[in-house]
Amino acid sequence: MNRRGRWTLAPEFARRTALVAAADCDSIRLQALQEIVEGETTKAKGRAYKGFKAYADYRELLDRKDIDGVIIAVPDHWHAILAIEACRAGKDVYVEKPMAHSIAEGRAMANAVEKYGRVLQVGNMQRSWRNFRHACELVRNGL
């Protein structure tokens, strides 16, 4: 997860949905992420906390039937591999930019989305965050 996942994505998503698990080969990063998610989930109103499971191997996380979607916030060279594996496992995907390193990787990801009937969104914080979306709306509306 590193910084992007821990400090940007996890808190934002934890406020909006139930983050139930994460995978990272670095146990220190994983522990820090768990603390952030638990803290943000505790702050969220009207939602029961169902627990958070940490995995050293992403494949164990993908095997869970109770997970609908995944956030891929890993080093860029893993994006295509993990997105394809997530689609194969029946998960929708939010992947950080860059989506892929080549046209072939991007095509393989698009093929997986189509083959497995999944949804894939490529994140771009300056288009996804609330304050940036609001600013875009103001400009589009002539304000």
Concise description?
The protein is an alpha/beta fold and 143 residues long. The chain is built from 7 helices and 5 strands; from the N terminus they run H-E-H-E-H-E-H-E-H-E-H-H.
Element order, helices and strands?
A: HEHEHEHEHEHH
Q: How much beta, percentage-wise?
A: 5-15%
Give the number of helices: 7
Helix- and strand-based class?
alpha/beta
Q: Explain this structure to me?
A:
This protein has 143 residues and is an alpha/beta fold. The protein has helices spanning 2-16, 27-43, 58-62, 79-88, 103-116, 125-128, 130-140, and strands at 21-23, 53-55, 69-72, 92-96, 120-123. The strands form 2 sheets. The protein has a 3-stranded parallel beta sheet with strand order 3-4-5. It has a two-stranded parallel ribbon with strand order 1-2. The protein is globular.
Indicate the topology:
Blueprint: H1 2-16, E1 21-23, H2 27-43, E2 53-55, H3 58-62, E3 69-72, H4 79-88, E4 92-96, H5 103-116, E5 120-123, H6 125-128, H7 130-140
Helix pairs in contact: 1-2, 4-5
